Amino acid sequence: MARMKFYCDPERCIECNACVTACKNENEVPWGVNRRRVVTIKDGDPGERSLSVACMHCSDAPCATVCPVDCFYTTQDGVVLHDKDICIGCGYCFYACPFGAPQFPEDGAFATRGKMDKCTFCAGGPEADHSADEHRKYGSNRLAEGKLPLCAEMCSTKALLAGDADVISDVYRKRIINRGAAVLARGVSFQDASFRAPSNLGGKSSSQE
Amino acid sequence: MRTPAHHKTVPHALGVFGIYLLGLCLLLFSTLVDAQEKQPKELPTVQMMNPAAEFWRDVRQRSAPVSGKTQVGGVETGVLINATGDRWRQFRMSQLIPISGYILGGMVILLVAFYAIRGRVPIEGGMSEHKLPRYTGYERMIHWFMASIFIFLAVTGLILLFGRPLLIPVLGKEGFSILASASKEGHNLMGPLFLLALVMIIIQFVRRNIYQKGDLSWLIRGGGIIGKKHVPSNFFNMGEKTMFWLLVFVGGLIGVSGLILVFPVLGLGREIMALAHVGHAIGAILMITVIIGHIYIGTVGMEGAIEGMKTGYCDLNWAKEHHDLWASKAEENGEALSNQEVAKMRGDRGSVPPVHSGLQESGK
Question: What is the pTM of this model?
Answer without folding.
Answer: 0.80
